C-alpha cells in the first residue's frame, strides 16, 4: 500500500467528504478557497488509480501545470504515471501520453481528442475543477456526456456553483451529480482551520466634475429610453438581463419598426456602458470608449455622436481627472506598505492606468491580464514568479487572476469595484487569507452601480448557501428525487426574494439591505450605514455592458 506523503494527511472534514463520495458516487464539493478541495481529489486519485485511468480537468494551462506538480509531489508519482496534456502537443504524441495512470489537462483538448478518437473514453475517475463552468456549451458538459458511465466517478470542485437554484441544478445535471457536500467557514469541523480575514468597505463619492458628466449621460439616456418606449418597447434600464432580452424581442417582430427600434436600443446600450465606466472606473476608460465610438460606422454611433449632450460630454472628458477611487486606492496601498497585494479591476483599460498611477507614487506594481491583451503564457508565468519572489508588491489583475493563481502569501486583496457575481466575489476574496491572516478591502462609489453590485453579490451568496445546504440535508434525509429538490429549492428562493422566476427579476428593493454579520468568516468593518441604492442599474449575472 502506498504511504501518504506528509502533506496529504486529511483533516476531519476532508475525510468526511471523501467517505461521502465513496459511498454516494458522483458528488459536487463546495469548499471555500484555501481549505483543500484539491487534497480530496488527490485522495480519490490514489484510491481509483487501481481501477483505471484518472482524469483531472482544470480550466487553464497554468492551473494544469500546477496540479501536475502537486499530484506528483503529494502522491509520490513520476512523470511516467502523470501526464500533462495541452493542445500544444502533437496529436500523435498526445495519444501516446494518454497511456498512463493520471492525466491532467484543460477541457478543450480532452473534448477535441474524444471527438477525433485520439482519446478512448475509459476512465475510473474524472475531476472537474472549477466545475461552476459546466454550463451551456462549455467543454466540461460535452466531456461529461461522452465519459458518463457507471464505472466512472465524477467529482466537481468549486468554491461557488452560483446563487440560483436552476444554475446549480444545471451544473449538477451536466455532470450527472446527485450528491452534494458543502462546507462554509462557520462549520464546526472547518472553523479551526480558517485563517482570519477582515472585509472593509470604503465609501467613495463622485466629484462634482463626474456628476456633471453623469447628468448629461442620464439626460440622453432618458430621452432615448422615451423614444424606444414610444415605439412599443419600454426599456428596463435597471435590469440589464431584461434589457438584453429586449433586443431579441425587437428582432422577432415582423414589422419595419424593428430597425429604427434597434438603432435606439443600441444608442441606449452605448449610453449605459459609458455611465457604468464613469461611475465605477473614471474618465480615462470612458475617453477610450468614446474614441472607439468615433471609429464606428453604425447608425447608432453616428446618431449618438451628433447629440448636443454628447458634445458637452466629450468636452468635459478632456479634463485629466482620475476617479475619486484612485486617490483612495493609492492611500490604502501606502498604508499597507511592505505587504503583498492584489488589486482586482473589472476593465482592462483601467488596469493600465492604475499600474501607472501606483508607479508614479513610488509603489512597485505590475499588471496581470489575459492573452486577449497580447500577453503570452510565458509572460504570465514570469509575472506570477516575480510576484511570488517579491520583485514587486502590487499585482493589478483582471478577472484572470480570480481563479487559478498559485500565490499563497497574499496579505490583502483590494476590489477596485464590487462585482455582482457571487462566484467572482467569492473567488476574489479567496485570494487572501489562504495560509495566513488576510484583509479584503472594497472600494464602493456611493449611489451608483457599485452599491447595487455589493447588495446583489451578498444576497446571491447567502442564497447559494441556503440552496446547497438544503440539497445536502435532503440527500442525507432520504435521497429525495430531483423533482422534490427543485420544489424545495424554489421554496427557499421565494423566501429570499419576491420572485426568482427569472435571474433578472431582482431589483435593488428586493435585496437584503443589511450587511452580513459574518462575511467569508470575516469581521466586516462598517464604514457607513448601509442603504439600498436608488439609482443603480443592476446587472444580475453579468459583468459589464459589453457582455452583450
Major sheet summary line = 8 strands, mixed
Q: Assign the CATH architecture of the largest domain.
A: 3-Layer(aba) Sandwich
The span between the termini is 54 Å
Global mean pLDDT: 80
Number of domains: 3
What brief labels describe this structure?
548 residues, alpha/beta, Rossmann fold, phosphoenolpyruvate carboxylase, domain 3, eight-stranded mixed sheet, seven-stranded parallel sheet, 19 helices, disordered N terminus
Q: What is the compact description of this entry?
A:
The protein has 548 residues and is of the alpha/beta class. Helix content is 46%, strand content 13%.
Protein architecture, described:
With 548 residues, the chain is α/β, with parallel strands linked by helices. It folds into three domains: 6-184, P-loop containing nucleotide triphosphate hydrolases (Rossmann fold), CATH 3.40.50.300; 197-205 and 322-533, Rossmann fold, CATH 3.40.50.300; 208-316, Up-down Bundle (phosphoenolpyruvate carboxylase, domain 3). It is built from 19 helices and 15 strands. It has helices at residues 12-24, 37-48, 61-74, 91-97, 107-116, 139-147, 165-174, 208-230, 240-252, 258-280, 283-295, 299-305, 308-316, 324-335, 348-360, 377-388, 422-429, 449-478, 482-496; strands at 27-30, 54-57, 82-85, 102-105, 125-129, 153-158, 179-182, 197-204, 341-344, 365-368, 394-397, 412-415, 438-445, 518-519, 522-525. Strands 10-11-9-12-13-8-15-14 form an eight-stranded mixed beta sheet, with helices on both faces. It has a seven-stranded parallel beta sheet with strand order 3-4-2-5-6-1-7, sandwiched between helices. Helix 4 (91-97) links the parallel strand 3 and strand 4 (102-105). Helix 9 (240-252) runs antiparallel to helix 10 (258-280) and helix 18 packs antiparallel against helix 19. The longest helix is centred in the C-terminal third of the chain and has 30 residues, at 449-478. It is globular, with a radius of gyration of 24 Å.
Amino acid at each position: 500500500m502506498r504511504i501518504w506523503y506528509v502533506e496529504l494527511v486529511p483533516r476531519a472534514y476532508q475525510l468526511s467528504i471523501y467517505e461521502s463520495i465513496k459511498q454516494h458516487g458522483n458528488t459536487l464539493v463546495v469548499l471555500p478557497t484555501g481549505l483543500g478541495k484539491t487534497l480530496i481529489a488527490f485522495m480519490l486519485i490514489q484510491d481509483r488509480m487501481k481501477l483505471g485511468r484518472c482524469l483531472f480537468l482544470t480550466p487553464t494551462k497554468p492551473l494544469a501545470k500546477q496540479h501536475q506538480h502537486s499530484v506528483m509531489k503529494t502522491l509520490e508519482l513520476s512523470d511516467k504515471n502523470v501526464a500533462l496534456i495541452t493542445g500544444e502537443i502533437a496529436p500523435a504524441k498526445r495519444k501516446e501520453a494518454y497511456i498512463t495512470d493520471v492525466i491532467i489537462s484543460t477541457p478543450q483538448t480532452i473534448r477535441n481528442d474524444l471527438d477525433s478518437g485520439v482519446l478512448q473514453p475509459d476512465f475510473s475517475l474524472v475531476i472537474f475543477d472549477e466545475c461552476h463552468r459546466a454550463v451551456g456549451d462549455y467543454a466540461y458538459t460535452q466531456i461529461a456526456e461522452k465519459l458518463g458511465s457507471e464505472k466512472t466517478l465524477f467529482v466537481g470542485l468549486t468554491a461557488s456553483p452560483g446563487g440560483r437554484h436552476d444554475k446549480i441544478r444545471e451544473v449538477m445535471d451536466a455532470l450527472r451529480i446527485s450528491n452534494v457536500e458543502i462546507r462554509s467557514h462557520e462549520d464546526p469541523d472547518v472553523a479551526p482551520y480558517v485563517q482570519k480575514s477582515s472585509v472593509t468597505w470604503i465609501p467613495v463619492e463622485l466629484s462634482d466634475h463626474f456628476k456633471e458628466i453623469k447628468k448629461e449621460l442620464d439626460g440622453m439616456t432618458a430621452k432615448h429610453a422615451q423614444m424606444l418606449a414610444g415605439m412599443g418597447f419600454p426599456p428596463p434600464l435597471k435590469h440589464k438581463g431584461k434589457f438584453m432580452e429586449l433586443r431579441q424581442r425587437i428582432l422577432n417582430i415582423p414589422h419595419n419598426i424593428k430597425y429604427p427600434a434597434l438603432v435606439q436600443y443600441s444608442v441606449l446600450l452605448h449610453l449605459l456602458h459609458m455611465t457604468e465606466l464613469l461611475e465605477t472606473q473614471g474618465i480615462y476608460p470612458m475617453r477610450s470608449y468614446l474614441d472607439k465610438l468615433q471609429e464606428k460606422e453604425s447608425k447608432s454611433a453616428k446618431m449618438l455622436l451628433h447629440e448636443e449632450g454628447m458634445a458637452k460630454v466629450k468636452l468635459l472628458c478632456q479634463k485629466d481627472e482620475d476617479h475619486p477611487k484612485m486617490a483612495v486606492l493609492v492611500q490604502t496601498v501606502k498604508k499597507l506598505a511592505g505587504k503583498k497585494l492584489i488589486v482586482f479591476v473589472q476593465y482592462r483599460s483601467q488596469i493600465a492606468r492604475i499600474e501607472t498611477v501606483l508607479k508614479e507614487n513610488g509603489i512597485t506594481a505590475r499588471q496581470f491580464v489575459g492573452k486577449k491583451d497580447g500577453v503570452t503564457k510565458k509572460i504570465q508565468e514570469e509575472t506570477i514568479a516575480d510576484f511570488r519572489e517579491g520583485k514587486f508588491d502590487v499585482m493589478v489583475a483582471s478577472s484572470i487572476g480570480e481563479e487559478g493563481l498559485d500565490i499563497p502569501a497574499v496579505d490583502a486583496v483590494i476590489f477596485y469595484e464590487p462585482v455582482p457575481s457571487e462566484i467572482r466575489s467569492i473567488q476574489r476574496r479567496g485570494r487572501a487569507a489562504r495560509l495566513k491572516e488576510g484583509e479584503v478591502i472594497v472600494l464602493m462609489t456611493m449611489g451608483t452601480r457599485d452599491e447595487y453590485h455589493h447588495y446583489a453579490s451578498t444576497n446571491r451568496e447567502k442564497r447559494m448557501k441556503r440552496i446547497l445546504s438544503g440539497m445536502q440535508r435532503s440527500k442525507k434525509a432520504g435521497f429525495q428525487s430531483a423533482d422534490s429538490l427543485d420544489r424545495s429549492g424554489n421554496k427557499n428562493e421565494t423566501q429570499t426574494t419576491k420572485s426568482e422566476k427569472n435571474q433578472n427579476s431582482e431589483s435593488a428593493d428586493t435585496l437584503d439591505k443589511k450587511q452580513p454579520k459574518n462575511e467569508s468568516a470575516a469581521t466586516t468593518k462598517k464604514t457607513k450605514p448601509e442603504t439600498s441604492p436608488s439609482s443603480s442599474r443592476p446587472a444580475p449575472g453579468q459583468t459589464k455592458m459589453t457582455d452583450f
